[in-house]
RNA polymerase I-specific transcription initiation factor RRN3 (Varroa destructor), 667 residues
Amino acid sequence: MASLVATNETPKPVQSRPEFLTPQPVPRRDGTLTQPATSSGIIHTAMNFVEVLSEASASRAFSDKYRLILASLKSIHTGVRSTNSIPPVQLLNELAKMTSLLDGFNEVLVVELFKFKILSLQTDILAAYLHLLVELARSNTFHYDEICRLLLSTMASIEDEKPPEDQLDLVHKALQQMIQELPHFSDVLLKQISKCLPFMTKPWSQQVNMYRQVLRIVDYVPTQLSLDVLSRLVHKIIDLDCHCPKEEMLTMEETVDDTVATQFTMDSAENDSTIKEQGPTKHSSKIGSDSQPSAISICNREMKHSLGNALDRLMELLFEYIDSHVTGSLDEAKATYRRFLAVFDKYIMATYKCLHVQFLMFYICSKRPLFMDHLIDFLWHKVQDPNTPVVFRQISVAYLGSLLSRAAFVSVGTLKDTLTLLSRFLHSYIAQSSSAQLLGVDVNRHATFYAVCQSLLYCVAFRHKDIAESTNGLEFLRSLNLEQLITSPLNPLKIMSKSIATNFANVSRHYQVVYCHAIIERNQRSALPMAHVAYGPHNAQTASGQTSQCSTIIEGYFPFDPYVLIRSRRWIEPIYRHYVDYLSSAGDLDDDEDEDVEEMDDETSGGGGEDGSSRSRVMKIDRQTSITSASPHDASVAMSIVSANSSLSGQGVEKLFAYSVSPGFIH
């Protein structure tokens, strides 16, 4: 039999459950009480959160209740919940009532709050959490940066093509409430947007989702803030556009037959920036045609160029945004146009050789004629404003000429009216310069004149058929008095892009408006370096006592050259005008040139039937005779002409008479 051994130890009393953990009955509406909750669903109505937080802040120590609150917060974002955890919705609602206590020692709770993964929360928990963030922002401006960073980083973390729209709607509702109620919250939001926009090398899906959410912010923020936010977005896309060279993207594409080139069918914008002539590029035989693609069957495939593919997706997103805002009410369309026009003026026009972003304005103008007329007027005022820097006047007229030529929605009447303004400006410029005795080939002095003249001739060469077929079209071309511009001492054909000058010469000869080939050939001969001494404020003598004739060629840059992005091209193709060679083929032009040469030979030989060699001998003898009979000074000049002609005789006919080829095939 086991014996009982008495001990001196007193039995420990059974510990009672803390009062705040004891389930309490909840009264119903009819006055009856509900049954106490089980351990898995405890409702902590007896806990005084204000007392717990105040005591912790005063004693600088964690009590059991405080540890329970902290553990319950951690369980929300970790997903590991204990049976004693406070229900998430109740906890967040209680903390929202005492946000003024969430500072100092209690900031440990705020740190846990900012660790939440918003898109992983259930809808009811997310609503309570966002309400807590709004109350936290109201109580202390110190939390603005962290709240903005948390919400924007949530948008930037979306990589799925179909984001959770219900949860994002709650996030935007909370952001909108804070923007409306908190004065300085907008400034912090704008700064955080610039920081949280994904880098260009991030996956395109992440970039598109982030930009889509930021465009939603543009719609509900104040006017000035919406402009600033849109500027941040477009500026990032411009950076991406500048990292996507056109040749590099076309080289990486397999279907180069569907691509298009620039200007009249040649990529001469880059070639004209240098003085030397370059041959056709590697893909000139395929991408060197400005003909309209037969079908856009590849519009849904990905581009091989990773950055180009991201740019393509972002441009498609912006086109969708513009389409949804411009096709609605007129007031909304005007507000959207004004925002994009301000961004266009501040960022897009100031970017050198931007390739695709400017087509946003191109597309907006196609939606309403009012926008097209306003943009033309906006650009023209910049061109003729003497207070505008010269470089921006040149860029403005380049945009103007490219818009008039490439936009299918620009009528012939608008084209003719604008060309009239350009020609009047040029004639007035020549008259003022001649009165001041400032005429002469000088790019630095007359840069605006040359840019305006190049755009004028570009438009005439590009849309000559539309002008000629309009009412009194040929009379209109003659009324522009282009001959006075071409033959002026400023000699614009010598300074402008060679391809544009050549195409205009072919068009003007076809309509017998002005004959430019002789001037072009003379300019080619005068391109040889000449040593002379000149004095004056604008012809300063060099260190060696010599100056050279200004032979710089202004760049043939026209911003609305063909669009090469694949997916977003479908928004541009229906409203875009591709270059079509309406003139005769190259062979016909060569035949015309041969006929002109034969007529000149007949006149020289007196209409006789001598062959080509005999005629050349007669011309050579006459030239030598004139040399021997002339004065010594004239003889030296004539001898230099003979030597120059003999040096040119070794060149090929195609190079010597490069201006005689058909428009659209200039290399």
In short: The CA atoms of residues 203 and 310 lie 8 Å apart. DSSP finds 30 helices and no strands in the chain. The chain has a mean pLDDT of 76. The radius of gyration is 38 Å.
